[in-house]
Amino acid sequence: MKTAENIEGIIINIHDVSKETFLKNSLELQVIGFDVEKTKLIQEKLNNNEDLLKRTAELTRVGGYEINFDTREVFWSDIVKEIHEVPMSYNPSIQEGVLFYHNRENQGWLNNGFKKALKEGVLFDIELIINTAKGNERWARVIGKPENEGGRCVKLVGAIQDIHNEKLAIEQLRRSEERYRSFIETIPLTTFNLELPGLKATYVSPQIEDLLGYTTEEFVEATQSDALNLIHPDDKEFVHKTTEEGYLSKKTFQVEYRAIHKNGTIVWLRSIAVYATENRKELLRIVVQNITDEVKSRQALEESERRFRHMADSAPVLIWMTNKIHQISYVNQYWLHFTGFEMKGSNQINRERVVHPDDLESLTNKYTEAVKNKEAFSWVYRMKSKTGIYKWFLDNAVPRYSSMGEYEGYIGTSTEITKQIKLSKELEIKQNALNQSIAEKDTLIREIHHRVKNNLQVMMGILFLKGNSILDENSRAVLTDVRQRLRAIALIHERLIQKNPLEEVSVKDYIKSLVKDIERTAAINPEYLSIELSIDASKMKLDPLTNLGFIINEVITNSIKHAFVDGRSGLIKLDLKKQEGIFHLLISDNGIGLPEYANLDNAELFGVQLVSIFAKHIKAEVQFYSDNGTIWKLEFHE
């Protein structure tokens, strides 16, 4: 430090140090000249300075050391011994002292920088890792000033500061925010004295230039009339009041405020002030730290918290948070309004007071299970309003984590679903009534199908009896065809009696039954005539299936009657498949084929006319032609 104080002819340079004073206080005060008559005053000043320096050393964890290369003696102050984790009685040799610094990280500097500093007699200031006596690694700032005589170093005097915690803090913050880390690494500690009661600056350390842009002389001059000149106008009254209360109480105090940098920018500062006396004068010794980035981060956090609370309080749902020990730590205004609670502390809010007794155990178990696995959960329960009425709520909650990934509890929302629950119950009642009504109608429809089937069977019986009494073969054949057509209808009703009449009917089962019935009615000999089925369609509604049954009945019956004359053998194939919602029906035989005059409009071909009529009912496209027999093709939508 180049700044010196001249008090009535006594010049004291704080950084030019004598050995005796250095051994006591880790800082050296070299007295250049003095007045013998003022020895007592000097001693008082020294005592005060020693007290200040001792407090500063303890606060900043700075200790002194001295190495005498002529006598081979090494001195470590108590702070230095604490930093190296050695007993207070320990006095190291030069070799022992150097061993504390022998490691891979320091090797380059020890081999080059340190030797060069000793050789050239230049001041060095470096941060190193110490291997302590207890085997720990600690960061320390080592400052040394060699004293050379005759071209060689005879003494090394300096200071060691414990910066381990600061290094750890810097490293931790570096991972989260580069700007914040840079701020921590360059924290300035500026000290100055304010003389009471006028609060005039009598001393300031040179770090003030890094802090506010002023040299020491400029700062002292700027604060001669008023020490608060550089403080932001909005903070002057507050700082003055806090300072006045502090020195009147003669206790250490701390204050945060804004100062104006030389370049006009605003700098946030934290000052720690200690009351002291010097030369029968009262002083405040102040250490100042730049906390601008810290304040900005705090303000950003407060703004984020403010926005969250504003959003939460404006939300139309109940919002809550728990802490690490699962106590409710926050609820929004809507939650308080609904329950009628006042947020006077987490102990004032608990689930037992608001959750319905019948739901409390299940909700607690659900929450406990979710917390165990650190997973999100949802639950429905009843909660009591401020009017005493229980209402239904749906809770959705997720675990909370800090920016460092540390679990901090849960945050959740509670959405009222009382109306939904009521509607759900009403819907359930209506659904039950509807199911009952459907069941009754199902029974009624089954009964109708049963009666229709019975009536058809009666009609088929009458036709059978009538046919047996008719001698004319053509008339008897007509009645047989009618009876077979009625059988096709009866099969549909038979299927519907066996299952839900509103459901679709199995196409494969129906066609198989229908073809078997045709074979039985026509008394087919399987050795001469066979029918092959290939059905790739599952179900079909009643109306199209009824018409499809009529068509199959007419085509296969006509093939049996007319395709295989003179007792020739043959084969009838039926292929039905469904592709992209369209049914494709192909019925073919290897008989004699159709007559040349056969077409859909020929009224003489009654079977063809019937197929045309049933095809129109299901809007089917019909083709039929002869090709080594007769081929029928139908395509229709379901």
List keywords for this structure.
638 residues, five-stranded antiparallel β-sheet
Q: In a few lines, what is going on in this structure?
A:
By secondary structure, this protein is an alpha+beta fold. The protein is 44% helix and 28% strand.
Spatial order of the strands forming the largest sheet: 5-4-8-7-6
Number of beta-strand segments = 25
Main beta sheet, described? 5 strands, antiparallel
What is the number of helices? 18
Give the SSE layout:
Elements: E1 5-7, E2 10-13, H1 19-25, E3 30-31, H2 39-60, E4 62-68, E5 73-76, H3 78-84, H4 94-99, H5 107-120, E6 124-131, E7 137-149, E8 152-162, H6 164-176, H7 178-185, E9 189-195, E10 200-204, H8 208-212, H9 216-222, H10 233-249, E11 253-260, E12 266-278, E13 281-290, H11 292-314, E14 318-322, E15 328-331, H12 333-339, H13 357-373, E16 377-384, E17 390-401, E18 407-416, H14 418-469, H15 473-498, E19 505-506, H16 507-522, E20 529-536, E21 539-540, H17 542-562, E22 570-579, E23 582-589, H18 606-617, E24 621-626, E25 630-637
Parallel strand pairs: 20-22
Antiparallel strand pairs: 1-2, 2-3, 4-5, 4-8, 6-7, 7-8, 9-10, 9-13, 11-12, 12-13, 14-15, 14-18, 16-17, 17-18, 19-21, 22-23, 23-25, 24-25
